[in-house]
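Continuing the series of single-chain predictions for the mutant panel. This is the parent chain; the variants come on the following pages.
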Amino acid sequence: MVHQSGIHVSLALESQFRSTSTDSICMLQAHISGESVEPGATQSQHNTLLDDFDSIPKLLNDTTPCYLLIQLAMDKWAFATYISDRANMWSKMLYAATKAMVTQTLGKSHFIDMMFGTMQDDFSSAGYKRHCVHAESSAPLTEQEQELEWIRNDESKVAEVLIMDLQCSHARAIYPLHEDTKRAIWEFASGTVNFVLLTIDSQKETVNVEYEGSVQLHYEMKQRVPQNVPSYALYWFDGSTHMFVYSCPSSSSVWECMVYSAFLHGFYRVCA
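Parent structure:
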């Protein structure tokens, strides 16, 4: 299955997950790499399930999200999503939105529990105990109601993380502009050049100058705007009218559209 963002579960992860059910493996880590979800580190079983959980936090990075496939019993798994508060906004959105596709591809029937955490300790034995206490305190639900509850809980927790990021992004209007980007905008404003093309690197959280210079005819501007990725363009239509152009081709991923749209008005204010 391919998610609308173009991401899919790799054959390597599918194969390793299938074989892990019969191996002495208690945990399989997975991460998004490029346009696929790939297998990562594994953890062998210990004496008890709580011992298994205590071995997980040391495998987690302070800033890098991941999925954790945790074997609670023979072929009975918990699907855990770890999204650190320190991860960038792009990663938070990507992992939150791709989770459902991963569980469906691997087989939802394998997963009897869902976990979500923003700290490494959320996946320790103490964290698992807290999760179980919370789950047991809830009213009994049908299988379908339980699945919907998992989705709502995950989405609520992810939303809290994203809202904080978006509030910070709104306050600063856009990713910080590097000196070469500021210089290009200044040269455009002063009339030194009449066209500047900018793109966003969401993973590095930078705004990059793809082209700055002067174009003689309007159709030259169109030729400079990429047809396969989103972009912002600044263009002097004539000697007194400047245009701000936001281009988002239909082939762009959902995430590219979201990032460019989120910063659209803030970037316009910066350039105005």
